[in-house]
Amino acid sequence: MIAVVIFWAAILMLLHAYLGYPLLLGAWARLRPHPAARGTHLPRVTIVVVAHNEAERIEARVDNLRALDYPGESLDILIVSDGSTDGTAERARVRARTMEGVQVMTFATRRGKPAVLNEVVPQARGDIVLLADARQRFDPGAVRALVAWFADSGVGAVSGDLILIEDKRGSSVGRGVGTYRRYESFVRRCESRVASTVGATGAIYAIRRALFSRLPEDIILDDVLIPMRIARRGYRVLFEPTARAFDRAPATAREEFARKARTLAGNYQLFFREPWLLSPRINPLWLQTVSHKGLRLLGPILLAAAFTSNLILIGRPGYRLALLAQVTFYAGASVGWMLRASRRGPRLFSLPYAFCLVNGAALVGAFRFLASRQRVTWDKASA
Length: 383
Known about the structure:
The protein has helices at about 1-30, 55-65, 90-100, 115-120, 140-145, 170-195, 220-230, 255-275, 285-295, 300-310, 320-340, 345-370; strands spanning about 45-50, 75-80, 100-105, 130, 135-140, 155-165, 205-210, 235-250. The protein is of the alpha/beta class. It has a domain at about 45-250: Spore Coat Polysaccharide Biosynthesis Protein SpsA, Chain A, CATH 3.90.550.10. Helix 1 (about 1-30) packs across helix 10 (about 300-310), helix 2 (about 55-65) runs parallel beside helix 3 and helix 6 (about 170-195) crosses helix 12.
C-alpha cells in the first residue's frame, strides 16, 4: 500500500538526517579519519568585518580584535561600513587613529555583504582572510587556532565555532537552540575529521585569499557558498572548535525564528542557484550536502507525510503506537511553546519545541525564497 511506502520513506529520511547521519559520521571519524597537518607558522591575516549601523558595538569590536593573541605586524583589521547612517564609520575611525593595523572603508549606499566582499577581499594584504561580523566577540586565541591548519597546503578554509551565552532574558528557547548548536558542532567536527564541513560558521571563518571567487551579489549564505566552492576545487574545509566567537542566545522565539527562516531561505536559494551541489559527480561532498543540508529542507514535508500516512494506517498493528509517539512529541513541543518565555522550563520540552521551530522556519524560508521576499541584507536584532 502506498501509505506504507510514504510512511517509512519519510521516517527513514528523517532518521537519517537527524540521527543516522551523525552516527555514521561519528563511526567514520573514529575508524577512518583523514587528519590534516597543523603548523606554528603565522601568516599575514586580514580580518574583514562588514558592518551596517553598528555604531554602538563597533568600538568594542575593534578593541576585541586588537586584543587577539596574534603578532600585530601580521594582523590587519578592515572595518567596512556598508551604507551605515548612524556614525559607524566615524566611531571606527576614532579607534583606527589610536591603533596600528586598523583600516576603515565606507560605502555610501548599502550593497549587502556579498557585494562588499567582492570589492575588499581581493584587495586584502593578508594571505589568509578571516571573515567576521560586528556583533560577536572572539576568544583571544581564535586566529592562531584557525591559521594553524593552513600549514597544510591542502586546506583552503577553516571555520571556527559560535558559542551562545544566555543573558538575563534567557529562556527555554535559548536552551533549546544552544543544545541544537552543540549537536551541529558535533556533526561539523566529524565532517572535518573525515573530509570537509558543509559550509562554515558565518561569525568566524578564514579562507586563503587566492581561493576567493566573485559572489553573486544577492546570495544570502556566503558562509556556505565560499567554502563549498573551495571544496569543489579540491581543498579541505575544516572545523576548529577552539576558535571561538561568542554571542548571546536568542532571547525570544521570534528572534530565533527570523534568523533561522533567513538561513533556510538562503539554503533553498543556494540549491537553486548552484545545482552542482546535488550532483554526486561534481560535488566531492555530495553525501554530506544531501544529508546535512538537503534532507533538512524537506523536513516539513517529511513530517507532514509521516503524520498523514500514519493516520491512514491507524488500523494496522503497530501504527497506533507510532501515531501515539508522534502525538506525544508534538504535545511536548506545544508545552515547550507555552513555556517559551520561561527560564525554568524543562529541557525535555525545549528540545521538541526547538525542532518544530526549525522546521516551521524551513517552511517560511521556502515561501520567502519562492516569493523572492528574502533580502540579502540583514537587520540586526536589538541586543
